[in-house]
Fold:
Amino acid sequence: MIQPLRPTRDIWSFDWFDLDVPIPFGSMFILPTCLYVVQRSSGALVGHEFARELEQRRAELFLQRLFQERGVPDELQVPGCEEWDENTWQQLSSEFHCEINLVDRDRSDYGIGSKVELQLSKLVTGSAEDLIETQGPQAVAQGLVRAVRQTRSKEKKRVLLRKALDLAANLPEALVELGDLELQEGEFDSASQHLAQAAEAAAPLHVKDQPGLYLKACHGRMLVAWQQGDLPQAISIGESTLWENPTDYTGFRFLLPLLQLAAGQLQPAEEYFHWYQETYPGDLEDPGLLFGWAYVLFEADDEKEALVKYHRGMLQNFYLAPLLLDLPEPSPDLWQHNDRGELQFALDFLDSFGGIWEQNPAATRFLRECYVGALPRLEQLYEVRARMAEFQDHRYEPDHRKIWDGMLAEEQRLIAAWRWR
Structure:
């Protein structure tokens, strides 16, 4: 169909604003971000959409829909944003033959936009008030917390959590999420406060040895105290929580003895490992814990058992020993059974607990002897793991499963043939 010529350029302006009222969104509640477009000359609303948060992909899909439903303007003005990828806007411009310009987002003189935003806000404000009244503030707050776990923006997460706590001041799941977020951001004082509040709120609902918000809050409190340099407090939280809940879903048992060693508490660490051996027979082999255990055994003059623990730890993570000894480490591209075997685990361990060995030259010399003696055997394992890393994605190989199982069996034969003692 032939369209009449337009006397002036058709310019659209895209923008967005956040609402502070919860609305249902699947199984959760969100504080929506409203995306909208107005015609620059008339201020008429072209279209709008309520989204979970501002994301470029969501904005792109919204604009594509408008182009298809309402036609393509001569120019689209998009406010600049740190999260924007300019190449994406260029691709959209080429696809729809529309000039797209990034402009400064100056809202000081925003009469048209203010009217549109007020108009769009009214679409949800009344229903949100009814929602809180019918669903109850706690149910809505819990729905907001569920939305946090599917939200990318940290600032948006904070807004959701603050709103949840406005509706239910002592909601443990909101306090745990907020405390964890603050811990990640290095806001240790506020994280400590919120996690302590969460632990107190969740304690009456806690069932011994069962995972839940109480244990998450206690684990967070221990991490905060550790990051603040208050090792005695971190150890105290870890001990009391682990003794009361020895099933340990959060990993207290791996971290506690290393904190004791970092604090110079050698005797408590030795007593801990005796308790650990009785309490967790057949436990998964955490390389950090095994290295700490070997350190304690060496200090107790049990070099034979210390050697065994070091070797078991080296099998679980190839990088720990060379990093602690400042020696060349194997390739980071070797195949690993789990995250505990990755280079990043070793780097984090070195950053957190490397000082334990740095301050003890005798223990470092013993570790060096253990590592150098085991290196020829470990290099055999490196070679197998390198082949596994190279082969793992060769799904087109008809005998992929058979060959893969063969390499796993070869790895286990090498380990079984070695006499670590």
User: Anything to note?
Assistant: The radius of gyration is 29 Å. The mean pLDDT is 90. The longest strand covers residues 11-18. The longest helix spans residues 361-391.
